[in-house]
Specification:
Blueprint: E1 7-12, H1 22-33, E2 34-35, E3 40-46, H2 53-57, E4 61-67, E5 77-81, H3 82-86, H4 98-110, E6 117-123, H5 141-155, E7 161-162
Parallel strand pairs: 1-3, 1-4, 4-6
Antiparallel strand pairs: 2-7, 5-6
Family: Belongs to the peptidase A31 family.
Organism: Desulfofustis glycolicus DSM 9705
Keywords: Aspartyl protease, Hydrolase, Protease
């Protein structure tokens, strides 16, 4: 990784549809508990769709945290690279808003401004009922996904510091 590489950590999802909000909750957890260098930017992407393009276009690498619609145990964690998406190894409709994200990435490519690297860290939802709370199965996965994302950043040479109790927001 080049030291000036700009890395975006994007949590997407709808926080009023139960586990669908997982990505947003995970980014909030990371932001509240860790300090990141200036070249790493966290974003609550919610269900912003096309409005995510400025964020995506300014990043060299984007780590997306989301739910994934696959036939697997609720709460199971899954990792996908941009190569997996291109190769059709995963459904491009990973969640109700995901198709929008992938379309936005295609628009960024047309503008020759897409991130060079894309990674998805996902969890299989248990409940997509109307609720602002994560299910008992998915909620504990926030810390697991956070550990995976932090380990990935460390592999890339990024130094992250855990906030002290006084710094936790």
């Amino acid at each position: 990784m080049k030291s000036e590489e700009k890395i975006g950590i994007l949590g997407v999802g709808n926080t009023i549809v139960g586990d669908e909000g997982f990505g947003v909750h995970a980014v909030s957890y990371l932001d509240s508990n860790f300090l990141f260098p200036d070249n790493v930017r966290l974003m609550d992407g919610g269900t912003a769709g096309i409005f995510l393009s400025p964020f995506l276009e300014e990043c060299d690498r984007v780590i997306v945290i989301d739910v994934v619609d696959v036939d697997a145990e609720p709460g199971s964690l899954h990792y996908y690279s941009s190569e997996d998406v291109k190769a059709g190894k995963i459904s491009t409709r990973m969640s109700p808003h995901q198709l929008g994200l992938l379309e936005v990435l295609e628009i960024c490519k047309l503008r020759d401004a897409a991130p060079q690297h894309l990674e998805f860290y996902c969890v299989v939802p248990k409940s997509l009922e109307a609720s602002t709370e994560l299910s008992d199965v998915v909620a504990p996965k926030i810390k697991e996904i956070a550990r995976l994302v932090l380990a990935r950043l460390e592999e890339l040479g990024i130094q992250i510091r855990q906030r002290s109790p006084e710094e936790i927001v």
